[in-house]
Give the backbone structure.
Amino acid sequence: MRMRNDWPLKFRHGVTDYFASLRQFCRRIRVMRVKFLQLVAAGLAAVSVLLSPAAADRTKVAYTPAYAGVCEACRFTDRQMRGWSLNGGIYRGADFSGADLSRVSALGTDFSGAVFLETSLQRAMLSEALLVDADLSGARLSDVRANGSQMTGAILARADLRGGHLIGASLRGADLTDAKADTAVFSGANLMGARLEGATLTGARFDGANLTGARFDGADLSGASFLDARLSGADFRGAIGLDTANLSGACINGGTQLPAGFSQAMLLCAPEG
C-alpha cells in the first residue's frame, strides 16, 4: 500500500497560522500605540491648561480636588474646595475670597500675599504653610491647625480662630484686631509687634510665646495663659481680665504697659541677646 506524503500541506497550514498570529499581534500593537498616544495627548492638554495665560489673567480655572502645582495670582473666589488637598502647592497672590476651604489640607503650601476675605477655613490643615502678608480678614479659621506656619504681616482682623492651634507659628507684625480666638493655642509663637486690640482671647494659651511689643488694648484675656511668655514692651492698657490670666514665669520690662490697678508681681525680662 502506498503511503500518502502530506507534509507540504502541514507546512502550508503552519505558515498560514504563523502569519495570522503575526497579523493579530501587529493589530494589538497598533491598538496599544493609539491608546498610548491618546494618554500623551491628554497629559499635554492638562499641562497646557495649567500653563495657560488664564492663571496670569486671574480668570477662573478648573482643578481636580488634589492639586499641588503652581497657580500664582489665580482667582478662586466663591469656589467650593471643601476637603481638597493642596499640599506643597504655590498660590502666591491668589484670591480665595468667599471660597469654602474647610477641612482643606495645605501642608507647606505657599499662600504668600493671597487673599482670603470671608473665606471658610474651618478645620483646615495649614501647618508649615506660608501666609506671609496674606489677607484673612473675616476668615473663619475655627479649629484650624497651623502649627509652624509663617504669617508674618498677615491680616487676621475679625477672623474667627476659636479653638485653633498655631503652635510655634510666626505672627510677627500680624493684625488680629477684633479677632475671636477663644481657647486658641499660640504656645511658642512669635507675636512680636502683633496687634490684638479688641480681640477675644478668653482661655487662649500664649505659653512660651514672644509677645514683645504686642498690643492688647481692649482685648479680653480672661482665663488666658501666658506661662513663661515674654511680654517686654507689650501694651495691655485697657485689656480685660489680665488679673485672671496665668502669668507664671512671664516677664516684662520698663516698656510694658499694664492695665490701671494691676498689682500682680512680675518678673523682669533679661535683655535680648
Notes: Residues 7-50 form the longest helix (44 residues). The helical segments are 7-50, 53-56. The radius of gyration is 31 Å.
